[in-house]
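Review session, final week

We close the course with one last complete record, chosen because it touches almost every idea we covered. It is Protein phosphatase methylesterase 1, a protein from Porphyra umbilicalis with 292 residues. Go through it on your own first, then we will talk.
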Amino acid sequence: MAEAGPDAVRVVAYDARAHGHSVTADPAREYELSAEQQVDDAVGVVTALYGGGEAAGGPPVPPLVIVGHSMGGAIATRLVASGRLPNVLGLVVIDVVEGTAVQALPYMRTWLRSRSRSFASMPRGIRYVVNAGHVRRALSARISVPPQLVLVQPPDGGGGAPDADAADGGGRPHRRPRWMWRTQLEKSEVFWRGWFVGLSAAFLHCNVAKVLVLAGVDRLDRELMIAQMQGKFQTVMIPSAGHAVHEDEPFATAGAIVGFLRRNLFIGAGGDDGTSVPAIFQQRRPVVPRRV
């Protein structure tokens, strides 16, 4: 994204509920991961950063382009479709489509049971993610995996997580600290269908410029394929990537996003120093986005 110029855009990335280093004020609500709750969380982040905008008697919220991957793409779509944020100009959804996501849900339990549950060290956890193909680019995994693991001390008596990094999570109880997944995805199962069912209709309902970045054309379901042929949104394919498109091919993904911003006149082409600030980001009033 640096290609857009350091003064052209501000990138805000936050921990989703039950992810990363953040925790909820009420531990009992840590895994309240419904789409509605996560939309509330996103609105709260924007409000904390920029206030309530002119509707709340404050300065206008700057132009926003919402970006999300996988579950985050589903939440980004529902956030934009809700109309709760002012001055949203664009939506970037990375490798999540309702049809393929819903079809994959029955296999999620098997996938969760098959992955290693703990690791003797952080490097072993990173190596596992790369070797298992979850993230194909080792440098990306070194950045993205550490926030996904937490160091767990063995309980008194020597029981605890498995001592081996076996795929089935087996092994003898350990007496040493182990790195374990910070997010217990099993606890979110009740919300899985709510994230994805109706996603295609919500995406098409978003009255902003939008782009779908995919690892393969086979991920498009029928509803989106028809809409794409009608020119209702832009599609970018990065076939050399797996599901973690932005981690497997970070430069291609960033290029696709910057190209989307420029194509829709959200940012300018940039000067020789790459720092020109496009007029749209200097406007004091919300603008009406072009429809795609």
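Two points worth writing down before the exam:
The first helix runs from residue 35 to 50.
The chain has two domains: 2-105+202-281, 115-189.
Good luck, everyone.
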